């Protein structure tokens, strides 16, 4: 054997039956905690939709595909300075974040093509077109990307 063959690598058996009792107990406890967290989440998620409120007490919109893409679209409006930031109330521009979110929406549009209802497709296409046009207008106004 050469020196490189002797160094090799070490295989550590991590199968459950090879573990110490302490390690088995720790894994059981982690599994139990994950199961409790999942059950708690499911119980909270099962509450009626009208019970869902933001920290300000404002009712939250129904969770569906349209509200998801509108949420992403709203973040683009905020980054373009067309809407005030919800925490600061200021209208600041961050063109790189606006572009990144528009690109993310474009990727999502391509991946969901022919898998949406006609209403969702129309909403998505119109939103994406509007966001891209607003971005181009802002970049042109500021003189570059």
UniProtKB/TrEMBL annotation:
<feature type="region of interest" description="Disordered">
    <location>
        <begin position="1"/>
        <end position="58"/>
    </location>
</feature>
<protein>
    <recommendedName>
        <fullName>DUF1844 domain-containing protein</fullName>
    </recommendedName>
</protein>
<dbReference type="Pfam" id="PF08899">
    <property type="entry name" value="DUF1844"/>
</dbReference>
<feature type="compositionally biased region" description="Basic and acidic residues">
    <location>
        <begin position="1"/>
        <end position="47"/>
    </location>
</feature>
<dbReference type="InterPro" id="IPR014995">
    <property type="entry name" value="DUF1844"/>
</dbReference>
